[in-house]
Amino acid sequence: MESIIRGSLAKSITYNEYRNTIDALLKEGKSTGNEQSEALTHYSELNVTRMNRLDKTIKITPEFTQQLQQCQNNYIWLVISEGWCGDAAQLVPVFHKMAELSPRIDLKIALRDDNDDLMQRFLTNGSRSIPKLIIIDKNTLEVLGDFGPRPEGAKQLILDYKAEHGVVDETAKTNLQLWYLHDKGLSTQQEVMEVMRAAELKHNVV
Fold this sequence. Notes:
4 strands; 9 helices; alpha+beta; Glutaredoxin
């Protein structure tokens, strides 16, 4: 695992580089990833608008701000993502805002299709679902926990819809985006901090 992590980190990019990569590809009519289609390009364009909004509006709660600022150990938050992913557009800006609050957290983004070995280690029910946030000890590269591809509330919404309708269609995707809009990133913050608290405890830090 350490060699896979090390290899993915070598290819990883910052949040700003991620945003710039998406923008540059869109100017060429392309999206990130191996597959190219008008639909994926369209989703990428929508996601740029979402991320622009979230960069301006996401607020990290005072409680979680304090906890992040009091981290006792050094971490890498390695995020597996792609620009066309609707969930990633809602979550990666939250990860970025949280990581900015702590000098002990270094946020890096690994594009899924460029890091299949890494993705294969963090499948969700056998699928290559993204985004995935992998919390890593910066000194040892030990994986201390992970989060994703959705907060529990969003996950349940899709499960319930699929149980009722048998498919995840455009209506389901719209409902999901509305859920994220109303949640304002709070569920993501809470669930990521649960993983972080567990990571800190592994270092015997209360």
